[in-house]
Specification:
By secondary structure, the chain is mainly alpha-helical. The chain has helices spanning 2-24, 50-53, 62-79, 83-99, 112-129, 136-157. Helices cover 60% and strands 0% of the residues.
């Protein structure tokens, strides 16, 4: 039961942060000249190259690429109804899922509003997996729903997607 408390605390803190960040509605101006400078909030801005701002450059979101492979594996395990495999991979799924957030979102993503909605959907699915006392059907539905949302995030944000090995050994 103690592990459940840890996951619940992470769930609540991640939800609060995601809700707070997504409700701000502020779009920060790109960093002038592509330099890392401090923003008014005191946090470092991600490096942005000037030609990326107008949509001409590549959108790099490493956290989303990391989640892609983990989410694919979770989807396969859910499709195969492998509860034990999902529970074994749950920490990895949670960590990779929580890493994809408004905080890690590149400034030059396409369609910020749609990306924020998809991030909310992703957060709900990942946070749902943090619960330790769920029936099999709920576990499989949550785990199986992550990869399609990741694909939508990649398409909507126009993030570059690194290829990965889709075979499970």
């Amino acid at each position: 039961m103690r592990v459940g408390h840890v996951y619940l605390l992470r769930l609540l803190s991640a939800s609060a942060v995601a809700l707070l960040l997504s409700s701000c509605g502020e779009v920060s101006d790109p960093v002038e000249g592509g330099l890392n400078e401090k923003s008014p909030s005191g946090m470092e801005e991600r490096e942005v190259v000037a030609d990326q701002i107008d949509g001409g450059g590549e959108v790099s979101w490493p956290e989303l690429n990391s989640l892609k492979e983990v989410a694919y594996t979770a989807g396969v395990l859910a499709e195969n109804r492998d509860r034990k495999g999902l529970l074994h991979q749950r920490t990895k799924i949670l960590e990779a899922g929580w890493a994809v957030s408004p905080r890690t979102m590149p400034e030059n993503v396409a369609d910020h509003d749609r990306v924020h909605l998809l991030l909310g959907e992703l957060t709900s699915l990942v946070n749902g997996l943090a619960r330790s006392d769920m029936p099999d059907e709920r576990l499989f539905a949550l785990a199986g729903g992550i990869y399609p949302v990741v694909e939508k995030l990649i398409d909507t944000s126009k993030a570059s997607s690194a290829p990965f090995n889709e075979s499970l050994e």
